[in-house]
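During the reporting period the student researcher (J.K.) took over the structure-prediction task from the postdoctoral fellow and processed the backlog of single-chain submissions. One of the processed entries is reproduced below for the supervisory committee.
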Amino acid sequence: MAQRSSNGRRRFSDKGGKHELDVLAVLSSAFPQWLTSRQIAQRVKAYADSYGELADQAAKAAFAKQFQRDRAKLSAMGIVIESRQPEYSPKTDNQDFASYRLKLGNEPKIRIHFEKEDIPVLAVANYFVQSLAQAEDFPADISREPALGLDSIAPGLGIQKIPEDLIEALNSRKYTAAVELNGKKINVVYADSDDLATFMLEHPSSRILTPFVAKEAYIKRLETAAGLGVASTDEGEESRPIEKKRRKGEQAHFVLQTESEVDRRLKLLLFLSAHMGTDYSLKDLALQFIGFSDRQGQGEAIELIKHDIGILSTVSDDGEIAGSQFFDVDWDLLEKKGIVRTTNSLGLERLAGIPPQYVGLLAAAVQYLSRSSFLSQADKTSARRLGNYLRQYASPGTVPWLSLTGCEVEPIFLSVIREIVQEGEDMEVDYVDIAGEKCRKRVSVEKIVVDEGIYWLVGRDEKGEPQSLRISGITRVHPLPREGRKEGAEPVPFRADGKKTPVSFVCDAELLTQISDFPGARVEEVGSEKVKVHMTVSHDSWFVAFCISHSKHISSVGPKTMRDLVVARAERELSVV
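J.K. obtained the following structure tokens:
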């Protein structure tokens, strides 16, 4: 229906949320033919009531605007409408008769059977992928195509709960960079240049491949850090504590996904179109597409589903102008037994399923989540199983590595190291130290420690001295036969870098508004725009990375031994960038 606005121009209302459904019905029934703007306007009831015979210029403009809006909505949901210009007389009476049809793609969609226990983790992975696809600089070799068809083979994704800390992490990271790490290409999602620099420094032997601006920003930070001065560690008399903010993940909540009626109806439409002739109870459909927690909620959800099915199987009164009749429904069976059985699809089952590239992206997301802190241990186990299952259907080479900055995952070599420890063997490791120097040692591992989210290998070196290595800094692992050790030897104490090291730095006051948490830190004013921060760090390597990453705000670092580590690491990175 169209309405008159106060300025006399026409506008379309969409009280029933049927514009998109009507457009989809018309284009689907006409496929593979192309339809012109005039044909679409005449066949879609919501447009035709006001569009008439294209005599009203205001109606033409209103239609064009509304159709492009509806087209964009469908595209955002994964149903793409492609267009082409006519080969002859492209314009008549100032009206551009471009042609349109559904874009089904050349590659067949993949249909995979998912178990009910897979759906919660699959929903988190799908949310993860959809969020990454919105990031700037998203790799061109990875498809951005949304997988609305995923709901047709795995219904219920929209009513699953997503970890709040994952949502928070994704919302703060809007850029992507391609990084090479240990010979693998990974796609890193980061918040800003400081955030990406921290990731690079915490993952030795990594290098930025693209984009160029990210590489350039990283080099500038290294050059600035190489010239840092030394700050006195003497505490100022007027120091004050920095207000502590909540760490991400301290309270891991979950939020329920929400969606519009049109979203829900489109997903229900594709699901029923992909399962023509199959019986589904209204209760099951209501649970999968709406969700409920009690008997009252169940009744309301069932009524909504019945209404949705009525919308999807309605035609206009004259039977000529297309409405949203996507299939026929066995109404007797529905009313008497609450069973939904549909037939005579318009061919929309062709949209059901997942594009091959999207399978690879889902597999990558599940792979990352299985090693992250966002899922419970039980869900991590499910994620590993689901990842192995998805990789069977992904094309070779289409499963990229994904990573979020600031959210350290289980290091790549962790599983290998665990196997070596279980076998009672020693190992030879190549690793990069705090200053960025490449080293090699033989290590007799006694335990693996997780300290403040960082994974450490704890054992003794070839001289029997205690050794603690950050596992993410290891670039190669080779098992060796274990050498004899003394009976009753004392357990190896855990010492990560320079444990509990007092440090200080002078920085721009604005830096304190950008950093999330400095537990136990104190700050004193140094002029109108500078402050001096005093703190104790548990990990020297973390502080070195912090100083380099934020070097544009930091003017000096103390004590001198720590400043020397910062400069040495910056110079080392510059030599290999």
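The committee noted the following: Residues 257-351 form one domain.
J.K. will present the remaining backlog at the next meeting.
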